[in-house]
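Appendix C reproduces, verbatim, an entry submitted by the partner laboratory led by Prof. M.T., so that reviewers can inspect both the input and the predicted structure.
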Amino acid sequence: MAPASVKPNSAGATTSTATVSAVSSSKVPPIARPLAGEPEEFEPEQAYFATAESVRDRLIQQWNETYAHYHKEDPKQTYYLSMEYLQGRALTNAIGNLDIQDAYGKALNQLGHQLEDIVEQEKDAALGNGGLGRLASCFLDSMATLNLPAWGYGLRYRYGLFKQRITKEGQEEIAEDWLEKFSPWEVVRHDVVFPVRFFGHVEVNPDGSRKWVGGDTVQALAYDVPIPGYKTKNTISLRLWEARASSDDFNLFLFNDGQYESASQLHSGAQQICAVLYPGDATENGKLLRLKQQFFLCSASLQDIILRFKERKNENRSWKWSEFPSKVAVQLNDTHPTLAIPELMRLLMDNEGLGWDEAWDVTTRTVAYTNHTVLPEALEKWSQSVMWKLLPRHMEIIEEIDTRFITMIRTTRTDLESKLPSICILDNNPQKPVVRMANLCVVSSHKVNGVAQLHSDILKAELFADYVSIWPKKFQNKTNGITPRRWLRFCSPELSLRKFAENADFQAEWSSAKMANKQRLAQYILRETGVSIDPNSLFDIQVKRIHEYKRQLLNILGAIYRYKKLKEMSAEERKNTTPRTIMFGGKAFATYTNAKRIVKLVNDVGAVVNSDPEVNSYLKVVFVPNYNVSVAEMLIPGSELSQHISTAGMEASGTSNMKFALNGCLIIGTLDGANVEIREEIGEENFFLFGATADEVPRLRKERENGLSSLIAQFKPDPRFEEAKEYTRSGAFGSYDYNPLLDSLEGNSGYGRGDYFLVGHDFPSYMDAQERVDEAYKDRKRWLKMSILSTAGSGKFSSDRTISQYAKEIWNIEECRVP
């Protein structure tokens, strides 16, 4: 169905005069307009909403034209299903892509406001958590910019993941209030509503066909968010689903009888579905809620896709279901939308009357899967009993897919029969029978891709090796990318330059731009944390989800060792060191104990270091709270060194490394994920490399597990590593018990494998690399040259390139430019 038609305030207005008229004519949104006779005060928040509505009106006109053009041309269209989208502030992106920053800046100046101040009024949409969601948003931006017929589908989370607050106790999670007032960028679509069923049972009809009936049904209500392309009329849609109960589900008799909770039980249950991102799943209720979220996204989106397919086909000519894959491409962003596979089969068979073979052919030619991890805990496995309870018809379909796959192996690949226990979809271990969602995706999709060359190689050689032997042409690599618009042009326009890296005048200009960004960041840090940092120090930043494999612990132990050595130096010796400000940011999942301990340790170290008058001119440690896209847009332009130090072979790609490199920030990192390709593009001499390689890691783990040693890989703890741990244990950073965290590095890990992430093994080479950083930073000309070459070598990592490859090599879609 088409986006809602809304008449813009000032269609086509691009001059400052017209824009002033557009903004001032709707200074206060209708929901906040004062009563007659009251004075109107055009405060910053009101100015933001007025500006946003003015820009949105412009987008909606382009949006409607885009949809009408797609409907007329009937191109093959991609639908991107993702549980996360991290959009960031929409106003900056919209006026940037529309190329009307100057016009709106002048208009707001005439009304007594600065555009920069108005932008700050917008809250980030809390629709994602980390790299997965940011990648999805970069991809939508590129789809629109490249004029590709594509849409995104997601969920409209009321509270997002959580807002992170840092206290003396460490991380505290509170509800995110991004929808406390309203979002001016979304359009509620009361005409786009689909039923989504849960629980119930399967009935067999006299003709043998099957039907899912009973249970609970909630309504999926669409909210559309326009996504503009850069300097193009094409404006695509991110359609977000909200769960609501029907008014028929409210039991007025029970309510009047005083049984208020019972009367509104279905309403309460519907509200829970889109309340938060990734609700805790330690209990069965938690698991049911997560599965509800995933199925809700898949079912509503597929019903919408099928309806649109029918509308376009019925209007243009007669058609057959076999044409569906020639008009529809569905991309699963990780395993969260896996249930789209059995749901599409169900809709085709039970609702549209297709037989199994035809439905399977349509489904497998339509669906493609992107894998984002090799971490066992991140490859989703759902309890079969929970699945049977919530989605009985889908479990029937999954069982049949698995049975047919097993039959195929036993009849055509007898050499793999012994591998069936690991490659089939259903793990029927009597202790804990589960559905392996990644296996279901691989078996059922026509293409499977990794997100960096190293990651894709690991998938093909290890994780999915047996499947590769069956379907060698199914597997591809699509190295991730980022949109250069948001991550350079809009957040750091000073560095949108390309000259000679050794030109003195250009280096001076580059240095000046970097210093301006560092000063802006220092002001932000002071405002948000109360810590004063020196813009002349080396700004060293690690921002990403807090996880043991990402090794923030390695970073902070390095900082602890640096602090101890500074304390031991004379005042004269300290003057010869490189002053450094080490910044951390990221959220630890609420139930991830060791991750929360790491956050606590960083903050405890910062409290001591930053208040130490002997040392704090040479070292500061800062934790930046509530890391999100808008915070990243402040941190990344001001960065000079960024740490991408995950255990090799464990980070699928990473995209923040691309954002930092694009902004002239040098990387200290392992040969992991996209680091490998970044180092190739910017030059080995401009990358501070350390650590074990991906092919060495399994052997090193095995040796540490078994207590083995060899002439090649004999490991002795580095004295610096032992010193950092003992200094932490000494109570130098407070009375908190860090022994459980430090014990994880010595054989008492929660994984039962002792320093599984090789923090101790990589610590010596990490510290050596940091010494090289210190020396390089002292040579300003060399550092500036390296910084410039980092930006110059980042062209490959544009999401435009990535999406072009998806379009040609997976989706088979072409440009459909709005005239």
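Residues 3-20, 24-39, 708-713, 748-752 have pLDDT under 50 and may be disordered. Additional entries are available on request from the coordinating office.
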